[in-house]
């Protein structure tokens, strides 16, 4: 909190999802989603504290009772209990640190730090075609497939970079107020941002949309967080494990 | 209401989004999203009443003030006003008719009516591989690209068919209670249903997920709705215009 110059956030989702606050920490793993693979890998590395950006139990507030008889969730809890793994979500505070851990980490991984400003989602990069921009993001962020709305040959210079699922209102507001050449989102609701961009273009506008995928769009932030945190906790080994893209594209 | 044996739905989103209830109807268009293209095509066909399954103004309740200075929305309203086009959303009632207009239309288009039951989302089809199932859905529903989680070679027989964006709680509950071989969704939140299926499989489970895309997953329902509605309104020409997939996959 002090390091990040943060004030307490009411109703934050950044709570312990398993384990307890008094257990001695043997090692720290940072990740996007604390999947079964990430948990098993943490056990192998003798790290009992996972810092995850996103939910553990398949809903925003990690309500374990949202779906009745959820055996997947029950078995995940058993696995966590068996190995005494604590998971802490680091979401609201993560985005409140200045600069935002996620957007800074993504800009860094995309080799855009010279164009990054903590106070704005907009980066003005040397002009490239949308096709070139897609290729650059795929290569630097390690993304195999993504979706766009736009003309692959159009020029892009002003990028609004919004990793994760910021929500339709936030995304459309950024598009509407910043007027970037391209909006780069992690995840969108198709009936919100995607349809807004489709209509914008049908009305003669030129803004494009790139949808990177949620996990892969924010993972570089949790990777960068290792370097941010390690100097502050030199006695504990901190490692990043990428939870990765869950989809096969067909 | 009477034809569908429906009771009034409180706080329904099924309201007039433009035009007024007293204007004479010159023709009816059904669609998923009333995009600028769909509106312009309606004008060409001299049809001034669009029945759309999904929002007109990029948010669930079609709040025109959600985003300040939304010039895309302002220009869409101008276009609707210029041509006196009425848009009515047909969402909540559409899913309340028995059988559900959307799921029936999709099952019909997928050539699955022999396996369709109005009271359940589960269809038991002749056994196919996941890869074959994907190909069948692409061909019958006219889908060019989609995302899956699963092994393309695994066998599928019990399909839970949930077109549209039913929400994580609903989708996970269907998966958890029905235990299908494959969950076929229109749109998912990646931190909900996708992560649930990823963990289920990492724990040794075999259920697969197919994500069709929102618009293309429900469009066959609005196409079928023409046949449902036309005999009830023989004096008015009713036509379907597909709003189509908004994305380019790269």
Task: Please characterize this protein's 3D structure.
2 copies of one chain form a homodimer. Chain A is an alpha/beta fold. Chain A has 2 domains: 16-97 and 217-240, NIF3 (NGG1p interacting factor 3)-like (Udp-n-acetylmuramoylalanyl-d-glutamate--2,6- Diaminopimelate Ligase, Chain: A, domain 1); 101-212, NIF3 (NGG1p interacting factor 3)-like (Udp-n-acetylmuramoylalanyl-d-glutamate--2,6- Diaminopimelate Ligase, Chain: A, domain 1), CATH 3.40.1390. Chain A is 35% helix and 19% strand. Chain A is built from 8 helices and 11 strands. Chain A has helices spanning 36-44, 71-82, 92-96, 101-109, 130-141, 168-178, 190-202, 214-229, and strands spanning 16-18, 28-31, 49-52, 86-89, 122-129, 147-149, 155-162, 182-185, 208-211, 238-240, 248-249. A 5-stranded mixed β-sheet of chain A has the order 1-4-3-2-10. In chain A, strands 5-7-8-9-6 form a 5-stranded mixed β-sheet. The radius of gyration of chain A is 19 Å and the shape is globular. The termini of chain A are far apart. The relative contact order of chain A is 0.17. The model of chain A has no long low-confidence stretch (mean pLDDT 96). At the A-B interface, helix 2, strand 6, helix 6, helix 7 and strand 11 of A face helix 2, strand 6, helix 6, helix 7 and strand 11 of B.
Determine the number of helices of chain A (DSSP H or I, runs of at least 4 residues): 8
Lateral strand order in the biggest sheet of chain A: 1-4-3-2-10
Q: Main interface pair?
A: A-B, 59 and 59 residues
Helix-strand category of chain A: alpha/beta
Q: For the report, how would you describe the main beta sheet of chain A?
A: 5 strands, mixed
CATH class of the largest domain in chain A: Alpha Beta
Succession of helices and strands of chain A: EEHEHEHHEHEEHEHEHEE
Q: Residue share in helices of chain A?
A: 25-40%
Radius of gyration of chain A: 19 Å
Q: What's the count of strands of chain A?
A: 11
Please give the CATH architecture of the largest domain in chain A: 3-Layer(aba) Sandwich
Mean pLDDT of chain A: 96
In quaternary terms, these chains amount to homodimer
Uncertain parts of chain A: none
Shape of chain A: globular
Family (chains A, B): Belongs to the GTP cyclohydrolase I type 2/NIF3 family.
Binding site for a divalent metal cation (chains A, B): 53, 92, 214, 218
Organism (chains A, B): Dyadobacter sediminis
Pfam family, one (chains A, B): DUF34_NIF3
